[in-house]
Design brief:
Blueprint: H1 2-9, E1 13-15, E2 20-26, E3 29-36, E4 44-52, E5 55-56, E6 61-68, E7 75-84, E8 87-92, E9 99-108, E10 115-123
Parallel strand pairs: 1-10
Antiparallel strand pairs: 2-3, 3-4, 4-5, 4-8, 6-7, 6-9, 7-8, 9-10
């Protein structure tokens, strides 16, 4: 799985260090990705807002797979819950190591075709 994550990250949006607020286009969709405080040693908040032609995408299945890009540490997947119309989120855990982290956001819109976007993050301690 980490090999697929790394290959997806090759074409990804680069973010960090510091709090992340990035928007990534995906065809007719746009994915706004937020991660605060974006520190390896602290819990934080992760959220993903999904729009299609400017309108919130509600009722989607959204999950984020996270893996270290600098060394093989495996990866983990976080399912996100809809917090408000088209915005999905949850607490982000302590990852314990600064460096380059890859985030693959998978969105399965209700009644639509699933898609992915990727981000490469430089996370500090």
């Amino acid at each position: 799985m980490i090999a697929a994550l790394v290959s997806a990250i090759a074409l990804a949006t680069s973010v960090g260090p510091g709090p992340v607020n990035a928007s990534v286009p995906a065809g007719a969709y746009s994915v706004a990705f937020r991660l605060t405080p974006n520190l390896a040693s602290r819990t934080g908040s992760i959220s993903v807002s999904v729009t299609r032609r400017g309108r919130p995408v509600t009722g989607a299945r959204v999950r984020v797979t996270v893996g270290m890009l600098d060394m093989q540490m495996g990866s983990f997947t976080l399912p996100l819950r809809e917090r408000s119309a088209g915005t999905y989120g949850r607490m982000f855990p302590v990852v314990g190591m600064s460096g380059r982290w890859g985030f693959r956001v998978e969105v399965a819109p209700r009644g639509g075709r699933a898609f992915q976007v990727a981000l490469a993050d430089r996370m500090l301690g």
